[in-house]
Amino acid sequence: MAKIFGRNYTRTQLMERVGNIDQIAGARQVKLAEGNEADALAIACKTGSGFNFMVDANRGLDIVSADWQGASLCWRGAPGEMNASYFESPGMGWLHGFFGGLVATCGTTHMGFACNDAGTIEGGPVYRHVCSEGECDEVFTPSGSLGLHGRYSYTPAKNVWADGRWDGDDYTFWVQGKVREAMHFGPNMLVERRISARLGESKLRIQDKVTNEAWEPQEHMWLYHCNLGFPVLDGGGEYLLPSRNVTPRTDLAADNIGTWSQFPAPTPNQQEMVYYHECGAEADGTVYAGFANRAFNGGQGIGVYLRYNLKQLPWLVQWKMPGQGHYVTGLEPATAWVDGRVAEREAGRVITLDPQESRDYELEIGVLTSIAEIDEMASRISALR
């Protein structure tokens, strides 16, 4: 039974009040119309609780926006929902189309910082200047340059299906499809994604199955780049993380490790900081993590939480960026750190999938709508430390 507008409704009670369930909740396919997002297929979703989100089929069924009762839950980057056809792979080109959003997925064969992986057919050309005895030559290698965060988020989905159904007095709707990252003589990775939500709830669930459909072993890396923004994010906000050990990625992050759990007001000339968290979990591997702004709306409070499994995603990457205009934090459950595939391979954190082998991932993202819900989640997370 769904609780909306302050009371519980059975299926009969609700349906006798509307002509179609999409008056209250559901998933509806739309076309984006202009500029760099033209002709992209998107799916607008709403649960009836005030929780709304948009899925972009042109961008791997990532979640490009989300809000609760008019308050954005995520940071939105200046490029917007850029059509995947504009993708620039080499180096930091991924950022030219970084929409931010609630979820930007990174993978499938590599994620993290750009690097040169000389032993792979993947990636773009590598140009190096080699100098000897005062003379320099440009050395060209046809492949091996892996760009930032991989290709997944710029790969359009196929077999997209948006629908919903009743199960007794509960209504569930979903968006699902298939995303294939493949190249001749190279990887053939299939991701089967399903995003679902229920009438009256302020949360969603992502279920991914990643399969190596090639006939050779394939390295695999995976990260959910969940980008929270104003007004969830604001000066005085706090991270709710079950951290047992925190490792800074850079000297700047190390210098500021004493305040990793706090978020300041927008700061001029701010550089990003990244921390790697080893998190405590429940007996079955369940991890909760989040961010809260207790001062929101005169003390009502608002926050966002993640629920995932440590056995699937053993690391939580914290991206802290309180800069002007770039006012965002990333809570990023991941299979590895973001130092690039070469470094992560050397550290033993890169997964290898055998031919036809699959790996499952599940991520729940929900809204904390009051101080009471924030306190309850904070207590649950504290018990995991």
Question: Explain this structure to me?
Answer:
The structure is a single chain. The chain has 385 residues and is mostly beta strands. The chain has a single domain (25-382), classed as Distorted Sandwich (Beta-galactosidase, Chain A, domain 5). It is 8% helix and 46% strand. The protein contains five helices and 27 strands. It has helices at 11-15, 251-255, 296-299, 341-346, 371-382, and strands at residues 2-4, 7-9, 26-31, 41-46, 51-56, 62-68, 71-72, 104-106, 115-116, 124-132, 135-146, 158-167, 170-182, 188-198, 203-212, 218-220, 223-228, 237-240, 243-248, 262-263, 273-279, 286-293, 302-309, 315-322, 327-334, 351-353, 358-368. Strands 12-13-14-15-27-23-22-18-20 form a nine-stranded antiparallel β-sheet, covered by helices on one side. A hairpin with a 2-residue loop joins strand 12 and strand 13 (170-182). The chain is globular, with a radius of gyration of 21 Å. The mean pLDDT is 95.
Model regions low in confidence, pLDDT < 50 over at least 5 residues:
none
Cα end-to-end separation: 35 Å
Question: What fold name stands as the CATH topology?
Answer: Beta-galactosidase, Chain A, domain 5
Task: Quickly count the domains.
Answer: 1
Number of strands: 27
Structural class: mainly beta
The shape is globular
Helix segment tally:
5
Please tell me the CATH architecture by its name.
Distorted Sandwich
Helix content: under 10%
Q: What does the main sheet amount to?
A: 9 strands, antiparallel
**What is the subunit arrangement here?**
single chain
